[in-house]
Write a structure and sequence with these properties.
Length: about 130
């Protein structure tokens, strides 16, 4: 049972990436040269980060970058990316997605209890 519990976040992350990739691929094929489609993966990655943590979000970001390279950038259906600017865009996307996922995961982390400090009385007030 613990295997299913640990595998669930990974399965959800890969399913989210697959659905977003299918939608973006359809937009890429039907539209005339849409630009910067890879950044549409950011919202689902932040959603996965808030639900399952930053590790799963990092995995989701890497899977999204690989999916984008394969399905969205020329030449299609190859991990090779022709344009160096597109390669830089993928690198910036991965960095932004990992940082955004970490920030989103930390927003919902419970804050540890910090005991309140009792103010010390000054010696002047004792006289």
């Amino acid at each position: 049972m613990w295997i299913v519990k640990r595998a669930l976040p990974v399965v959800v992350a890969l399913a989210v990436v697959s659905v977003v990739t299918a939608v973006l691929w359809f937009v890429r094929v039907s539209a005339v040269e849409p630009q910067h489609l890879v950044f549409f993966y950011l919202f689902p990655i932040v959603l996965v980060a808030t639900l399952y943590g930053s590790g799963t979000a990092a995995l989701c970001a890497i899977a999204a970058a690989l999916s984008a390279a394969f399905f969205l950038y020329d030449p299609l259906y190859s991990f090779y990316v022709d344009n160096p600017l597109d390669m830089g865009e993928l690198g910036c996307f991965v960095a932004l997605a990992v940082i955004g996922g970490k920030c989103a995961a930390d927003l919902l982390r419970p804050v540890p209890h910090v005991p309140q400090r009792v103010p010390r009385q000054s010696r002047m007030s004792e006289d």
